[in-house]
């Protein structure tokens, strides 16, 4: 129960990583606030996570709206009396290379992934100070170091900028006992990658098992990490077991970096 008595905000909760983090927050004893733009879907997820509603607050918001960021923090404190941690998962993920990426994709990726993250952290920081400290976990991308097979120029650029944000905020917020760390996933076996496998199989006229075998071959551990594997590391960073760790970047990649 490493999150017992803590209230954790998870932004960008939908199918995939956000929901997996949310499940583990509850499993490990925390109180949970989930945020995303689609309120109806968010309520459905909240009921699945905790049918009683006692330990989960669903609060729709848009990370690009600074007032909305402040509102979800205020709602967290009003409902549970405190806020101890933030897992910032919300992201824009435009696809495209130099020729196919319009300026609007760079603007959107930067607005959501960089500016939105900063706005949400800024809103959370005073609440963390009120309880003597807190933890922020950002989601990075290995595409900042290794371009993926399907180009993500604007997305990769925004995640590289977010890496710089993490370093600066770890230094700035450290004296306030607020830790800032990043978890960097590889391919995560969940809805997005399952969709990719189906798409590639259809495009190339081969089975999904063959595409999956190609992916597994990328990892020394012999399997594609799942959303839940990444979520475990996020939850660990949110806990006091990592109370002396800040400004760090942890790859959860099944050893893939060794093969790149």
Give a topology summary.
Blueprint: E1 7-11, H1 17-27, E2 31-35, H2 39-49, E3 56-58, H3 66-80, E4 85-88, H4 103-130, E5 134-139, H5 153-173, E6 178-185, H6 191-204, H7 208-216, H8 227-238, E7 249-252
Parallel strand pairs: 1-2, 1-4, 2-3, 4-5, 5-6, 6-7
Short description:
The chain is α/β, with parallel strands linked by helices.
Structure write-up:
The chain has 260 residues and is of the alpha/beta class. 47% of the residues lie in helices and 13% in strands. It has eight helices and seven strands. It has helices spanning 17-27, 39-49, 66-80, 103-130, 153-173, 191-204, 208-216, 227-238; strands spanning 7-11, 31-35, 56-58, 85-88, 134-139, 178-185, 249-252. Strands 3-2-1-4-5-6-7 form a seven-stranded parallel β-sheet, sandwiched between helices. Strand 1, helix 1 and strand 2 (31-35) form a beta-alpha-beta unit. Helix 3 runs parallel beside helix 4. The radius of gyration is 18 Å and the shape is globular. The termini are far apart. The model has no long low-confidence stretch (mean pLDDT 93).
- Summarize the biggest pleated sheet: 7 strands, parallel
Q: Class by helix and strand content?
A: alpha/beta
Question: What is the arithmetic mean of pLDDT?
Answer: 93
Strand order in space, largest sheet? 3-2-1-4-5-6-7
Rounded radius of gyration (Å): 18 Å
Low-confidence region ranges: none
Q: Which percent range describes the beta-strand content?
A: 5-15%
């Amino acid at each position: 129960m490493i999150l017992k008595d803590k209230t954790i905000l998870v932004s960008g909760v939908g199918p995939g990583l956000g929901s997996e983090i949310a499940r583990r927050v509850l499993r490990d004893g925390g109180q949970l606030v989930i945020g995303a733009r689609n309120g109806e879907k968010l309520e459905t997820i909240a009921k699945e996570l905790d049918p009683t509603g006692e330990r989960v607050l669903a609060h729709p918001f848009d990370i690009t709206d600074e007032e909305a960021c402040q509102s979800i923090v205020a709602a967290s404190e009003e409902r549970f009396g405190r806020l101890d941690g933030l897992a910032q998962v919300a992201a824009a993920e435009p696809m495209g290379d130099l020729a196919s990426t319009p300026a609007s994709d760079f603007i959107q990726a930067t607005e959501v992934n960089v500016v939105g993250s900063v706005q949400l952290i800024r809103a959370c920081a005073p609440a963390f100070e009120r309880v003597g400290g807190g933890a922020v976990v950002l989601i990075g991308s290995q595409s900042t170091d290794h371009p993926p097979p399907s180009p993500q120029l604007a997305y990769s650029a925004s995640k590289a900028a977010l890496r710089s944000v993490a370093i600066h905020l770890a230094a700035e917020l450290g004296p306030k006992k607020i830790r800032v760390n990043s978890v960097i996933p590889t391919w995560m076996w969940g809805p997005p990658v399952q969709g990719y496998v189906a798409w590639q199989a259809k495009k190339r006229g081969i089975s999904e098992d063959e595409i999956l075998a190609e992916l597994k071959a990328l990892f020394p551990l012999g399997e594609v990490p799942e959303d839940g594997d990444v979520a475990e590391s996020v939850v660990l960073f949110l806990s006091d077991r990592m109370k002396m760790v800040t400004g760090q970047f942890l790859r959860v990649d099944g050893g893939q970096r060794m093969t790149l």
